Amino acid sequence: MSEHYGGVIDALVKGEWEEPGTGKRYTIPPDDIVIAASLDGREAELVRRQHEGRSLVVVSDAYTHEALGQRVYAALEADGVDVTEHVWGEPSCSDRGVEELRAATRGRQALVAVGSGTINDAVKYASFLDGRDYSVFPTSPMNAYTTNTASVSFGGFKRSITCHGAKGIFFDLSIIAGCPGRLISAAFADVICRTTSQVDWLLSHRLFGTPYARTPYHLLAIDEGDMIDHAARMRDGDIEVLAMLTRISALMGLGTSFTATTHSGSMAEHMISHHIDMFSGDDHPRTSHGEQVGVATVTMSRLHNRILNADVPPQVRATRIPEARLRERYGATMADNMVEQTSIKALDARQADRVNRQMGDDWDAFRAPLRAVMQPFDLLHDAMRAAGCQTTPEQLGVSAPRWREAVTDARYIRDRFSMLDIADDAGLLSGFLAEHHAGP
Description:
Blueprint: H1 8-13, E1 32-36, H2 43-51, E2 56-61, H3 62-78, E3 83-88, H4 95-104, E4 110-115, H5 117-130, E5 133-138, E6 149-154, E7 157-162, E8 168-172, H6 173-176, H7 181-192, H8 194-208, H9 215-229, H10 239-259, H11 268-279, H12 289-308, H13 323-330, H14 332-345, H15 349-360, H16 363-373, H17 377-386, H18 393-396, H19 400-409, H20 419-425, H21 429-436
Parallel strand pairs: 1-8, 2-3, 2-4, 4-5
Antiparallel strand pairs: 6-7
Helix pairs in contact: 4-5, 7-10, 7-12, 8-16, 9-10, 11-12, 11-19, 12-17, 13-14
């Protein structure tokens, strides 16, 4: 079987998709995105279209090598390609890990990644630093494959680095159907965060004129409703349902192609996940990025619904950055980074007054566009449960105190303004967290 399920993605690759309302056509960085029921027997053909005449190295880890990497390598070798393979024992998308990968793949002209988040992002960034092209055979449905950014940890501080995207992205749905069910659920969670990231980005746009684009959301809307309707079937191996999830995940990642930023799919909910990754140390729950984003999306959706459905707007004060507490908890270097990021978006007294006037002069008019893109909390929560997603910190293996800390301090990680900033500057965040994440 080789049925294709690209849909609107095929039109984007060809430059034929027209944006509703504007008629504008866009080109996207990947030269080829293939979503098919099976790619068995087509591996060499697909890679050749992107890397003809290049010496290649197939990069995987122990698990993805067994699932697909050895098949890709064997197909390229049988096709006469100058190819080697690197099965990475302990993959890490960190400054150290990327340098290790660069050294291990030196001498090869292009890289072929086989894997999911860590493998893809590490190969993406390593190939960018060396000026080499890469393509990827995903082993799970997630949005990182189609972005031109990589999430890289530098000295423990995670940053989203703009680099380059894959030349070719080749989704074999028969492989994705065999990936662990928790990865399917994590992909669902990482896509349904559209609702919270869009509210946060639009909020920042309305208050501060942050550049904002509707284009990614026109594309995501094509499949989002059906994805939610079919949430309970996500983990039953149905190729049609997996094709839908894979397609919307790919479209989520392509948002960076239209906006030159990850704002369209990464706001406060992602910062909460980054906090868990950055500061849990040995107590890290060993959950994936998507799983953490899912629970953070539940928290942010509840907060969005609480504030935007209230009869009166929140009243913010000038931002107070707790430098002493940040230094005590995170150390001087990390605290300096957090203070620097927060200072960019911090409100002084004059700005706080302006924000209060802007929201308070006509609260219904201000919140109407935000509520229009916000999913009702119960709808989002029920869909995530149906898809097998974790929805509470306890299900992640994160204690209530640790979760409260992550949500409270996530605002300090990046300069992106979100509802966390509004809630905290209005004195509402601690009470909200005490109510919903009381714990011990």
